[in-house]
Amino acid sequence: MRRTPLYDCHLRAGARMVGFAGWELPVQYSGVIDEHRAVRSRAGLFDVSHMGEFRVSGPEAVEFLDRNTPNNVARLETGRAHYSGLMTEQGTYADDLLVYRRGESEFLLVVNAANRERDLAILEQRSAGHDLRVEDRSDDYALLAVQGPEAAGIVGELSANPVGELRYYGFLEGSLLGAPALISRTGYTGEDGFELYLAPEQAEAVWEALLAAGASAGLVPAGLGARDTLRLEAAMALYGHELNEEITPLEAGLGWVVKLKKGEFVGRDVLVAQKQEGLRRRLAGFEIVERGIAREGHEVFAEGERVGEVTSGAWSPTLEKAIGMVYLPPSLAEPGTPIEIQVRKRRLAARVVELPFYRRAD
Amino acid sequence: MYPTDRLYSRDHEWIRIEGDVGTVGITTFAQDELGEVVYVELPEVGQSYDAGEEIGTIESVKAVAEVYTPVSGEVIAANEVLDSEPDLINSSPHDDGWLFKIRLEGEADLDSLMDAGGYQRFLEEETS
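Above: the input entities. Below: the structure tokens describing the complete assembly.
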């Protein structure tokens, strides 16, 4: 299994390590609930260096990305990022990803570790014969995320750049501790926060400096466990759970990403048809009414009939109840609809609720 | 670390026997593996169970664990405090976080259980 440059830092911080997408990563330090609440109320520091980064550059880069992703790349300004996906011919996602525009013809794509090789193969194959380059630069970057209401102050202490002035999904090419870094106001927790792309050699120094700078504000290292419960409360999709090659972004509630008017792109015809005909299923949130936790794969029933299965389920530290997501026929996806979930030997009462489960107060 | 006044199972449970009543809980190793406990489903008082039978569940943030009874008998008490304070299993697995009390029936078969030293060795083998 691969290790990030921060492996030793994690062990020193008392992390419990687990395998994830071929990487050995911290699942928790002090505990999932503690870390989760720290991010909601103060700040948490995550090592997400396993994520893949691709450089896409060249005269045809914009056109290429616009043909392969549903969001509008031509309209993405330099210094801004957007959330998108790598389309399949079936109108689904081969992966979900972030697109950073670093220049007129210079982009950074950030992809899931588990899909990195397949994504690269797709991009290389589709770009053949076009005037652009696709390079896997994942090994050039360590990626840290500082998330929570205190994040801006903490990151600001390590940078001479005006990080607090960045808009959501804005980024700057600046520095941390004097070394180059791409500082982006993005995240996967539903809180304000930053993602910091830096050279692997810098990772340990920046990690330690962030923890020191954030100590008085209550910054704690946070693991994959909290990352998962945080993103679930914010109803952010996780590839392999809410997203896969059988689910379209429209079904996943990502219609805001899909820009059908921008022109032709891979899988567009499927999405156009789906929009005209109406969705047969869509992503819904639920909460368990009884005691118990529904988890991925548990079957969901409505009026005795099997209607779907849980894509993600967990106990929510913010709401202090069990929550989850499931694809349901639109008629059942309305908030308030009673459903039941088979949790081992018991069938638990649950109800559909609005997504997201948690939205930060601005 | 592991109290010597009780016996331990390969399912990482402990049982402390006083007279014909056994008090059962999970070990500190088990709670640490499981992580923060958020729900506990306890057996019904008055019900009889066979040794090794699944008798309840402990649900943590990360995972779910079945609870088995290490001996046969009738459940005479369940630790209802765990309904409101399930994290007692994390903070006090060997004391306040006990799960249930069971009245042993017949000749209790304790041969498959380990003493504290035996359990410690079992853990070292399991985790090495």
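Note for the figure: The helical segments of chain A are 7-12, 32-41, 61-68, 116-127, 151-158, 200-214, 224-233, 268-277.
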